[in-house]
Design goal:
The complex is a heterodimer of chains A (about 150) and B (about 450). Chain A is mainly alpha-helical. Chain A has 8 helices and no strands. Chain B is mainly beta. A 5-stranded antiparallel beta sheet of chain B has the order 3-4-31-30-29, with no helix packed on it. Chain B has a 4-stranded antiparallel beta sheet with strand order 5-6-7-8, with no helix packed on it. Chain B has a 4-stranded antiparallel beta sheet with strand order 9-10-11-12, with no helix packed on it. The chains are: A mainly alpha (about 150), B mainly beta (about 450). At the A-B interface, helix 1, helix 2, helix 3, helix 5 and helix 6 of A face helix 1, strand 1 and helix 2 of B.
Chain lengths: ~150, ~450
């Protein structure tokens, strides 16, 4: 499979993942930076043994780096307001979660992935994912309760 | 804790809306990312990307700065290890420490580092170690990768994790006309150890702690000279972001009394543990570890109302302190390094009144670390004519201490620090030239 085919296969789920992590205004930049980094280091996406978990981890790492470097608010109030109609306060709470907790919540509760696969995509152990989910749920429960 | 069905459904609905805000995914054509909407510019620009690819192909690898190699296999063995990757490279990192367990001592692994280990901590679910200017990180204490390097002039001797920031306390070494010079410096990294910036430069900082009151640096300020002597006053600097620091408190100082702030612990308020001795004072005439100095405390509900709380009943000089779920723990070493059991471990509920907890005998207590209700103390023996033997003890209730089997650790290594996270313990040890990171499981 060539690079374009690999990219075409994964780009949609990656842009959605990046959107959850850095917001819709920066998601494209994340993917652009990820591809740049992979090509510079590996020369080709096809050089990756298993591109999907690699690319997911790359998106998470790049997102965390971008947010730290530029001190960005990934989901500022105006972006939440224009994107989320139903219970925007819950979206704001999700957006306030640390990146890895937000990633774990998204992959678990929306993508319905088992913990072991979430751990693989995040590059950590299943126990760590459970910890992220526990911490995130504690924060989200407060706002989910009306 | 789990979300009930209604909460899960609401969360899914919210996540679906957020995800639906995603822009169209860019395409990849001829090794270039191109926007799906004609005319739209992506950042970084496609031109930069194209140049990056060209440079990657044509710039010799020799131009890429070398990262220190990390080898594994245990003291005395050095199997070759692959080149280090970086955090930014999400490829599964090179496994540097082959499993050497389980054994009777439980599962363990060891990684040899290219230089002695300067600092060790847990930050955002990873172990971090500083060795030879390299910043190593590990999820499990077994596979270590170089995630960054310190600036050439930076030295970090203590690592602290605070609210997403990795804080290194140490100094800056510069080539001054009179020779190499040292300036106390706090270094911070906001990107997981990849890049570092100096803050709080030139202040007399002894330790840095992450507290509910923000980052707190303990140390002293020099008072006006008295003749050739320089009295000191204990002082605290605070910061919420590691970048902007404020001199938040300073002890009363005069021509009769010098003091230093050595560490802080906290519960409902803040307890500053320090040392107090005669003034005038200068470096050649005395030191806080001198027997004439005593341990003292200042307490307060906030930094603004810290007040003297009298003497602290600890014999010796503080070497490490930890506030844990089981109370406060402190390690001290005595004033006579030749004496047996010259160091001790202490436990306290309020930070002022301490109990000698007698964790083993005949060894130096060097480092204390905690994760939840597990507290670990590490150190090593120091008997004349005998090689050092590392010692590690732990408790899960603050009452009963258990000595870990450390027989797999090569005798002669000096324990530098311990760190524990998620049931995994990392012990950093120094050899004559290199360091060793042992992963043990209590």
């Amino acid at each position: 499979m060539n690079d374009a085919a690999i990219w075409a296969k994964h780009k949609e789920e990656l842009i959605r993942y990046a959107t959850m992590l850095v917001g819709p205004d920066h998601a494209e930049d994340i993917l652009s930076a990820v591809v740049e980094r992979v090509l510079r280091r590996r020369g080709s996406l096809s050089a990756l043994d298993d591109p999907r978990p690699y690319l997911f981890r790359a998106v998470l790492n790049e997102s965390r780096g971008l947010l730290r470097r530029r001190r960005l608010d990934p989901w500022p109030d105006d972006v939440v307001a224009r994107t989320v109609e139903y219970r925007p306060e819950v979206a704001a709470a999700v957006a306030r979660l640390p990146e890895r907790q937000r990633a774990a919540v998204y992959l678990t509760y929306w993508r319905d992935l088992p913990v072991r696969e979430v751990a693989q995509l995040m590059g950590c152990r299943p126990g760590t994912v459970k910890r992220y989910l526990h911490l995130a749920r504690k924060k989200l429960e407060e706002v989910l309760d009306p | 804790m789990t979300l009930d069905e209604r909460h899960t459904a609401e969360l899914r609905r919210v996540l679906a809306q957020m995800e639906a805000g995603a822009p169209l995914a860019p395409d990849l054509e001829e090794n270039r990312i191109v926007a799906p909407v004609p005319g739209k510019t992506l950042k970084p620009a496609a031109f930069a990307l194209g140049m990056a690819v060209v440079l990657a192909v044509f710039v010799p690898l020799a131009l890429i700065p070398d990262r220190p190699p990390v080898q594994s296999g245990g003291p005395g063995t050095s199997p070759p290890a692959g080149p280090m990757t970086t955090l930014a490279d999400p490829e599964p990192t090179t496994t540097l420490g082959p499993s050497n367990g389980p054994t009777a001592a439980g599962p363990w692994d060891v990684t040899e580092t290219p230089a002695r280990i300067d600092a060790l901590t847990v930050h955002e679910d990873r172990f971090y170690a500083i060795t030879g200017g390299a910043v190593l990180a590990s999820e499990d204490g077994v596979s270590w990768t170089t995630v960054g390097t310190l600036p050439e002039e930076a030295v970090v001797l203590e690592l602290v994790s605070h609210d997403g920031i990795l804080v290194g306390h140490g100094g800056t070494v510069v080539d001054a006309p009179t020779g190499r010079d040292w300036t106390d410096t706090v270094w911070i990294s906001t990107d997981g150890g990849t890049t570092w910036s100096p803050t709080l430069v030139g202040e007399r900082v002894r330790r840095v702690a992450s507290t509910p009151f923000g980052l707190v640096a303990t140390g002293w300020v020099d008072l006006d000279p008295v003749g050739a002597q320089l009295p000191r006053a204990a002082a605290l600097w605070t910061s919420s972001d590691g970048i902007d620091w404020t001199l938040a408190w300073r002890a009363e100082g005069d021509t009769d009394v010098s003091s230093t702030a050595d560490a802080v612990v906290w519960a409902d308020g803040l307890v500053v543990i320090g040392s107090q001795g005669p003034a005038p004072f200068d470096e050649g005439a005395g030191h806080p570890s001198d027997p004439v100095w005593e341990r003292v405390a200042w307490t307060g509900a906030t930094l603004a109302d810290l007040a003297p709380a009298g003497s602290v009943n600890v014999a010796g000089f503080f070497t490490d302190v930890a506030t844990t779920d089981l109370g406060h723990f402190a390690l001290t070493y005595g004033f006579d390094p030749a004496a047996k059991d010259s160091s001790a471990a202490w436990q306290s509920g309020d930070g002022v009144h301490w109990t000698d907890i007698r964790v083993g005998t005949g060894w130096q207590h060097v480092s204390v670390a905690a994760d939840g209700t597990t507290v670990v103390i590490g150190g090593d023996t120091l008997q004349p004519g005998q090689p050092r033997q590392p010692k590690v003890w732990y408790t899960v209730d603050g009452q009963t201490w258990v000595e870990m089997d450390t027989s797999m650790i090569t005798a002669g290594l000096a324990l530098r620090a311990v760190a524990i996270h998620d049931g995994e313990l990392v012990v950093a040890l120094d050899g004559p030239v290199t360091g060793f990171l042992y992963r043990l499981t209590p």
